[in-house]
């Protein structure tokens, strides 16, 4: 069904979803063209399931049934189907009813709902997913409650309703259970939805990383090419499952020692993962063959897709649609591959030649194959292993979000490293990153800051510093280069988390110690005076000094600096052993080593043996705040902490890694109490929704409407934000009349775009206490700056003196909804002194927002001035955050200036932009990105 054949068809209800077992399905509205599919589907449902659906034996559907179940108005009668391979596996429908249970139309807000799931697909979470989607559809159509009649023996369906997290009522009538669900999302329903999303998406990645069998499609007989390389790497990695080679022209049983077949279909057993390495024009046939054989997932190494231009992007979109139609997931295309070092898997389905990376505690995700190679090489040189590696290429399906879902509860991964060119679904990424960062570090190097024309990565309107600040709010450790990504990852994977910013420095070079001290100050740390052991220091001296530092109450981390000895009496192994012994005796603090031309020391330190193995990081609480007179606080272990000591060839790199660990520890402590999004009794959410709906009636999709001053004030007032009224003053007489209405003293301001908020140009006159002053100021204003028609003057009542600030919220394509705050004026604009938080903001976010700008002291009594009413300012920020979060139609709000006085705040001007919201959002039912 297409929009062209039926203009009423709601195409935006179509969605791809991940089911509980990691497979995918497509949900779409049922149409008149589905009669054959519906009959075929019903024939495959067991008699018991039919009985549960119709409360009586119902072996087949009549023509009348088929017509009723395939003809909908998509308002009062709606049917959705879950499909795989184009065929129905489940259906759900609702019919709007009145208070007596009879068919009805709006304004009736209740509907009867019923499900039917094919027996072969029961237990996959299909009904739960359909309930999310039919519930979203119903809310869109003005339905607020679902009613369902269920037989008591149908415990599976009763559980679908009761486990959804909605408010509900349950009664027993006439031999059946009657359930009534309130469809308004609740905190519990959202938590249930997100928990199911995490399990499903994690399972879908787990199926890709831990297959029981792998087929490589496109293995050349000559042993050359990408397919043959992938096969060799799988074979040489010691993969524990079944391995097959596929080449349509193969004439022998083995290729490179691996069982070979002409087609995937010819393989006798199941295939869990297929690695496709054929030219792009042959990929659709390979995907179809895999889908028909029941393959669960694909790694497509083939190029010639989105990276090659518009034609390739269209080919990529069709590839995703085809893959998902078979219920599979896709890594790629243009992928470098995947690696899983788990001892019972040992999968190297990538282009990384043997030997495969060693087993470690770091998970690594990249979009770029070249960056993936660089990161793998960097970790290998530093002696660090991996838990898993995914290089997703064009990231057409599986993305960093999916991998974060997998790593969240993967016991083999203690640190998540990601190289990203885009955040994908930004709201979802920050939500997942915040949750994951609460149990293990998430380190991101983000490329694509300045995307060239035609590049497939969408750009952002926000400055890079803003993006970095928003990531840090979510607990993400943002680094600038892939080198820093490795540096920070090594420290977090190998060492405990520091309990504070106090850094001890010791070593055998005074100059290197001073460089390290300066680097600490640059990073905002609190270094202790460096301890110079002199160039005559022996390994025993290093051990003694490090032991003293580790057991001291005065430091939270230690940086050891080392230069080569003049004599050869103290080899690197001896120094490494001395440092190991000290760390083994006092393992509670992180240690990093700065070395100069001591390559042997790097190798010795990365091969540490015999150190204690604390519990995994996720089982520990936040690092405690250090107490002045207490024993040194125990740092939070990140993994099997202490299994190596990271070393760095430059002081700046070591200190940068330590500083990121310190800031991450501070974030962990701060988010132990994450704060709350406040509830307000005086908010008129329904009224705001109705007002926005009315304003957007005549606005085209994609267009943005700037509200009039009156409409903006009305909308903001519904959320308790009062904008001081202004009256137009096209003449001096009009200005006097306006002042008579508002009462003296007043302000006279221009509102012309080129003069707006530019008091420095003389476009604002304040504290006018009489008609004479007002007329004189009006004449001076027009003489100096232009005619009234150009200046568009207005009169406004004066407010108490205070600090002028700017509050705004915007929807950014690459960051989602953002709340921003700064002081008004050209100085703040010039310096970029603006702070940002993601929406919805909590009370802790609002408090931190106003304190994070460099000019914040002006709000708190700088140089003897009176402190302003920051609680009132925080309240304003939270109300604006709620407005933007509750109503995605609001795409931008600018409040400038906001005068914060000793008591209260005054919003003098407001600009509000609105538009039709996207059909789907992160708060809607679970969906995969659409193509």
Largest sheet: 8 strands, mixed
Report mean pLDDT, rounded to a whole number.
Answer: 88
Global shape: flat
Radius of gyration: 32 Å
As laid out across the biggest beta sheet, the strand order is 1-2-3-4-5-6-8-7
Tell me what portion of residues adopts beta-strand conformation. Answer: 15-25%
- The residue ranges in which pLDDT falls below 50 over 5 or more consecutive positions are 451-459, 608-642
Question: Which secondary-structure class do the elements indicate?
Answer: alpha/beta
Task: Summarize the structure in short.
The chain is an alpha/beta fold and 931 residues long. The protein is built from 27 helices and 39 strands. 34% of the residues lie in helices and 22% in strands.
Give a verbal description of the structure:
- With 931 residues, the chain is of the alpha/beta class.
- It contains 27 helices and 39 strands.
- The strands form 6 sheets. The chain has an 8-stranded mixed sheet with strand order 1-2-3-4-5-6-8-7, with helices on both faces. Strands 11-12-10-9-13-14-15 form a 7-stranded mixed sheet, with helices on both faces.
- Strand 1 and strand 2 (24-29) form a beta hairpin.
- The longest helix is centred in the first third of the chain and has 23 residues, at 187-209.
- It starts with 14 loop residues before the first strand and ends in a 17-residue tail after the last strand.
- Mean pLDDT is 88; it is low at 451-459 and 608-642.
């Amino acid at each position: 069904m297409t929009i062209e054949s039926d203009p009423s068809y709601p195409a935006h209800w179509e969605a791809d979803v991940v089911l509980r077992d990691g497979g995918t399905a497509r949900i779409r509205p049922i149409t008149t063209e589905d009669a054959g599919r519906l009959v075929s589907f019903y024939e495959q449902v067991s008699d018991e399931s039919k009985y549960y659906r119709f409360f009586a034996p119902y072996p087949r559907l009549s023509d009348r049934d088929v017509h009723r179940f395939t003809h909908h108005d998509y308002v009062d009668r709606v049917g959705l189907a879950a499909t795989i391979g184009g065929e129905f596996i489940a259906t759900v429908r609702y019919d709007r009813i009145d208070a007596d249970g009879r068919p009805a139309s709006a304004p009736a807000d209740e509907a009867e709902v019923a499900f039917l799931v094919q027996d072969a697909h029961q237990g996959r979470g299909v009904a739960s997913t359909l309930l999310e989607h039919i519930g979203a559809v119903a809310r869109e159509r003005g339905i607020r409650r679902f009613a369902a009649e269920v037989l008591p023996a149908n415990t599976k369906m009763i559980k679908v309703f009761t486990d959804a997290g909605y408010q509900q009522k349950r009664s027993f009538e006439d031999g059946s259970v009657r359930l009534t669900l309130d469809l308004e999302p609740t905190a519990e329903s959202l938590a249930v939805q997100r928990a199911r999303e995490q399990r499903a998406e994690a399972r879908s990645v787990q199926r890709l990383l831990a297959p029981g069998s792998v087929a490589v499609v496109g293995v050349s007989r000559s042993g050359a090419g990408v397919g043959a390389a992938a096969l060799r790497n799988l074979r040489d990695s010691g993969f524990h499952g079944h391995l097959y080679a596929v080449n349509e022209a193969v004439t022998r049983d083995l290729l490179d020692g691996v069982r070979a077949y002409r087609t995937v279909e010819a393989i006798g057993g199941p295939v869990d993962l297929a690695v496709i390495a054929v030219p792009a024009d042959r990929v659709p046939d390979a995907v179809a063959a895999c889908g028909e054989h029941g393959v669960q997932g694909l790694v497509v190494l083939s190029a010639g897709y989105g990276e090659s231009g518009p034609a390739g992007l269209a080919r990529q979109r069709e590839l995703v649609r085809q893959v998902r139609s078979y219920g599979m997931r896709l890594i790629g295309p243009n992928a470098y591959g995947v690696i899983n070092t788990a001892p019972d898997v040992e999968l190297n389905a990538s282009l990384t030649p043997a030997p495969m990376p060693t087993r470690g505690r770091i998970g690594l995700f990249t979009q770029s194959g070249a960056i993936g190679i660089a990161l793998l090489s960097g970790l290998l040189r530093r002696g660090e292993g991996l838990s898993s590696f995914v290089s997703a290429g064009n990231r057409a399906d599986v993305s960093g979000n999916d991998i974060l879902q997998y790593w969240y509860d993967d016991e083999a991964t203690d640190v998540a490293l990601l190289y990203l060119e885009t955040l994908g679904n930004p709201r979802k990424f920050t939500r997942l990153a915040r949750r994951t960062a609460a149990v293990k570090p998430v380190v991101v190097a983000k490329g694509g800051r300045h995307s060239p024309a035609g590049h497939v990565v969408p750009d952002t309107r926000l400055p890079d510093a803003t993006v970095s600040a928003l990531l840090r709010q979510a607990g993400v450790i943002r680094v600038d280069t892939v080198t820093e990504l490795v540096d920070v990852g090594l420290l977090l994977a190998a060492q405990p988390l520091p309990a504070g910013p106090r850094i001890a420095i010791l070593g055998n070079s005074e100059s290197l110690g001073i460089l390290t001290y300066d680097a600490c100050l640059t990073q905002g740390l609190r270094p202790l005076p460096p301890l110079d052991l002199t160039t005559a220091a022996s390994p025993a001296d290093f051990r003694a000094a490090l032991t003293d530092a580790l057991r001291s109450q005065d430091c939270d981390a230690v940086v050891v600096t080392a230069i080569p000895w003049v004599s050869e009496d103290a080899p690197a192994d001896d120094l490494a052993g001395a440092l190991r012994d000290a760390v083994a005796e006092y393992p509670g603090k992180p240690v990093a080593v700065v070395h100069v031309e001591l390559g042997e020391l790097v190798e010795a330190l990365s091969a540490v043996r015999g150190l204690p193995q604390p519990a995994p990081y996720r089982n520990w609480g936040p690092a405690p705040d250090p107490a002045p007179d207490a024993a040194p606080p125990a740092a939070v272990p990140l993994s099997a902490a202490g299994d190596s000591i990271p070393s760095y060839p430059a002081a700046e790199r070591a200190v940068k890694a330590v500083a990121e660990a310190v800031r991450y520890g501070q974030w962990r402590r701060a988010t132990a109490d994450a704060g709350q999004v406040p509830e307000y009794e005086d908010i008129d959410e329904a009224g705001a929704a109705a007002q926005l709906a009315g304003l957007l009636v005549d606005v085209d999709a994609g267009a943005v409407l700037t509200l009039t001053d009156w409409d903006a004030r009305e909308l903001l007032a519904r959320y308790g934000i009062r904008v001081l009224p202004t009256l137009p003053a096209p003449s001096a007489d009009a200005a006097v009349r306006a002042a008579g209405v508002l009462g003296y003293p007043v302000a006279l301001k221009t509102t012309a775009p080129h003069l707006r908020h530019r008091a420095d140009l003389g476009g604002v006159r304040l504290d006018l206490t009489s008609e004479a002053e007002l007329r004189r100021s009006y004449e001076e204003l027009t003489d100096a700056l232009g005619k009234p028609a150009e200046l568009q003057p207005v009169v406004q009542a004066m407010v108490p003196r205070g600090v002028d600030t700017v509050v705004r919220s915007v929807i950014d394509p690459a960051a989602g909804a953002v709340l921003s705050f700064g002081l008004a004026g050209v100085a703040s604009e010039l310096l970029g002194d603006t702070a940002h938080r993601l929406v919805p903001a909590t009370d802790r976010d609002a408090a931190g927002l106003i304190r994070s700008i460099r000019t914040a002291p002006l709000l708190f009594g700088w140089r003897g001035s009176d402190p302003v009413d920051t609680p009132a300012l925080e309240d304003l920020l939270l109300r604006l955050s709620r407005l933007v979060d509750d109503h995605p139609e609001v795409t931008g709000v600018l409040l400038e200036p906001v005068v914060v006085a000793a008591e209260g705040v005054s919003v003098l001007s407001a600009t509000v932009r609105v538009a039709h919201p996207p059909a789907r959002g992160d708060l809607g039912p679970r969906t995969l990105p659409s193509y």
